[in-house]
Amino acid sequence: MIISSFNEGRSFFEIPQIKKHAVGASFLMVVIVLIGYVLYSTVSWMWDDQRLPLSKLVLQGDLEYVSALDVQRAFSQLDYVGTFMSQDVDVLQDTIESIPWVSNAAIRKQWPDTIKVFITEHHAIAIWNGDAMLNESGHVFNGDIGKLKGEHVKLYGPEGTSEEVLQVWQKVSNQFQSLGLTITSLVLNERRAWQIILDNGIRLELGKESLEERIERFIYLYNNLGSEAQKVSYIDLRYDTGAAVGWFPEELEQETTDD
């Protein structure tokens, strides 16, 4: 009887405790639902196409050839520019890097409506095949050559040879500087033969092999020509030894002197 009375006492005290836990659990569920609703409403609001449109552009970088107008025109080619929340930054980056003068771009969004763009331009080292340009890595890029500032060497070569031609020019140009001469044009033709045109008008035919040796042979010959060098039209060095020298016609030389 004592045991039975003790058990009945436990049942009596457990009922209010259960009710208390039930009320607490219900309250917690209500809080969770309210928080979920607020979060859902907030996210839905932020992802709404009518909310937080990207409307401002901040352009950064040491820029000489790329303008804000170029970037705006590139963005206008997109079917749609999203909001602060929905727009994929990678899409914007690919779009800007399609601008000819842009080497690479870093983009970030700034709350609530701004796109910040940091651009690195290509540094044009040479004109390539008459209608494109090379950067310092030999990468071919397009752009308005008419906007290019300063004098640049003209390099020519078959497709896929831009890096090789640039490296050869960088390697041999110092040899001509010792003579007070500058390479204005370097050509690698389809037969893999090299040709150089100097700023004094002399054309060098160097062939496919022994490029450095043939340039050294030209330097020796040029030093021995003295004042006669100004009469030279071309020098063909495609021989194991020696060279063939082409001269300007005397009447052309006379006309040039008279001028």
What does this structure look like?
It is a single chain. By secondary structure, this protein is α/β, with parallel strands linked by helices. The protein has 2 domains: 66 residues, membrane protein fhac (Ubiquitin-like (UB roll)); 133 residues, Cell division protein FtsQ/DivIB (Rossmann fold), CATH 3.40.50. The chain is 39% helix and 23% strand. It contains 6 helices and 12 strands. A 9-stranded mixed beta sheet has the order 6-5-4-7-8-9-10-11-12, covered by helices on one side. A 3-stranded mixed beta sheet has the order 1-3-2, with helices on one face. Strand 8 and strand 9 form a beta hairpin. It starts with a helix and ends with a helix. The N terminus and C terminus are likely disordered.
List keywords for this structure.
9-stranded mixed β-sheet; Ubiquitin-like (UB roll); 3-stranded mixed β-sheet; Rossmann fold; 259 residues; 6 helices; alpha/beta; disordered C terminus
Chain-wise SSE layout:
Blueprint: H1 2-46, E1 56-60, H2 68-76, H3 89-96, E2 102-110, E3 114-121, E4 126-128, E5 132-134, E6 140-141, E7 153-156, H4 162-177, E8 183-188, E9 194-198, E10 203-207, H5 211-225, E11 232-236, E12 244-247, H6 250-258
Parallel strand pairs: 1-3, 4-7, 7-8, 10-11
Antiparallel strand pairs: 2-3, 4-5, 5-6, 8-9, 9-10, 11-12
Which geometry do the CA atoms define? rod-shaped
The averaged pLDDT comes out at 83
In helices, the fraction of residues equals: 25-40%
Q: Considering the protein shown, what is the CATH homologous superfamily of the largest domain?
A: Cell division protein FtsQ/DivIB
Assigned CATH architecture of the largest domain = 3-Layer(aba) Sandwich
Strand order of the largest sheet: 6-5-4-7-8-9-10-11-12
CATH class of the largest domain: Alpha Beta
Structural class: alpha/beta
- The CATH topology assignment of the largest domain is Rossmann fold
* Rg computed from alpha carbons, rounded to a whole number of angstroms: 37 Å
Strand elements, count: 12
- Counting DSSP H or I runs of 4 or more residues, the number of helices is 6
Order of helices and strands: HEHHEEEEEEHEEEHEEH
Largest sheet properties: 9 strands, mixed
Q: Span from first to last CA?
A: 138 Å
Structural domain tally: 2
Unreliable stretches (pLDDT < 50, length at least 5) are 1-9, 251-259
Strand content: 15-25%
